[in-house]
Specification:
heterodimer; A: mainly beta; four-stranded antiparallel beta sheet; B: 11 strands; 0% helix; globular
C-alpha cells in the first residue's frame, strides 16, 4: 500500500534543545497530519496541514510546536524548546485530500522521541 | 464532544473463536470510521473502514457494523488466529471539516492457541 516515510526513527535530546521530525508523505497526497502517541495509549491528533497552511490544531499543539513543508520537501514538525513531556512516538500521516471529510489516512513508522 | 470510547481494553480469546470490539462516538457529524491494527513497535495499519452511507462491511474475516442512530460501531474478527494478536484502535473523524481522527483508547487482543 501507500508508504509514508519518517526520519529519524529515534531521537534522544536534552530538554530545552530543538528537534525537527521529518516526514515524507505519499507522493500525490495533499493533506498531512501529526499525531502523538505516549506508550500504551492511543494516537492523539496534533495538527493537520494543507496547501501550506495549518488547517486545525489541538490543545496538544503547544506554542513551541511548528509545522511546515517548504517547497514540497519534507513535512516537518519542529519543537523548540523541548520539554520532558514531549517524549513520545510521533506519527506522520497523509491522505489524498479529496476535499471531503473521511479521507483514508496512511501512517508512517513513527519517530520515537526521548527528551532527557 | 469529540470523544471516542472503546471497550474492552483487553480481550483474550481462543484460536478459532470470534472477537468483538465496540466503540461509541459523540460527534454527530462524524461520517468515517476506520479501524487500525498496531503491533508492538510498529505504526498503526488500516485494516478496514466504514463510511456513514453503510451499515455493514466485510473484508474476509473482518466485519464492521455501524449504528448511526446509537452512534456506535464495532469490529468483529471471525475465526481468530494467533497472528491477530495486537492492539486495535477504532477512530472517527471529528470536529471541523479537516479530516482529524479521534481515536479510542485501544483494545489489546490476545488470541491463544
Amino acid at each position: 500500500g501507500p508508504k509514508v516515510l519518517q526520519i529519524p526513527s529515534h531521537q534522544i535530546i536534552d530538554m530545552g534543545q530543538m528537534v525537527t521530525l521529518n516526514c515524507d508523505p505519499v507522493s500525490n497526497h495533499l493533506y498531512f497530519y501529526w499525531y502523538k502517541q505516549i506508550l500504551g495509549q492511543q494516537m492523539e491528533f496534533l495538527v493537520n496541514f494543507y496547501n501550506g497552511k495549518v488547517m486545525e490544531k489541538s490543545k496538544l499543539f503547544k506554542d513551541q510546536f511548528s509545522v511546515e513543508r517548504p517547497d514540497g520537501s519534507y513535512f516537518t514538525l519542529k519543537i523548540q524548546p523541548t520539554a520532558l513531556e514531549d517524549s513520545a512516538v510521533y506519527f506522520c500521516a497523509s491522505s489524498p485530500g479529496t476535499g471531503r471529510r473521511g479521507d483514508t489516512q496512511y501512517f508512517g513508522p513513527g519517530t520515537r522521541l526521548l527528551v532527557l | 464532544g469529540e470523544q471516542v470510547e472503546q471497550l474492552p481494553s483487553i480481550l483474550r480469546v481462543q484460536e478459532g473463536s470470534s472477537a468483538s470490539i465496540n466503540c461509541s462516538y459523540e460527534d454527530s457529524a462524524s461520517n468515517y470510521f476506520p479501524w487500525y491494527k498496531q503491533e508492538p513497535g510498529e505504526n498503526p495499519k488500516l485494516i478496514i473502514d466504514i463510511r456513514s452511507n453503510m451499515e455493514r462491511k466485510q473484508i474476509q474475516e473482518l466485519i464492521v457494523l455501524l449504528d448511526k442512530k446509537a452512534k456506535r460501531f464495532s469490529l468483529h474478527i471471525t475465526d481468530t488466529q494467533p497472528g491477530d494478536s495486537a492492539m486495535y484502535f477504532c477512530a472517527a473523524n471529528t470536529g471541523a471539516n479537516t479530516g482529524k481522527l479521534t481515536f479510542g483508547h485501544g483494545t489489546i487482543l490476545r488470541v491463544h492457541p
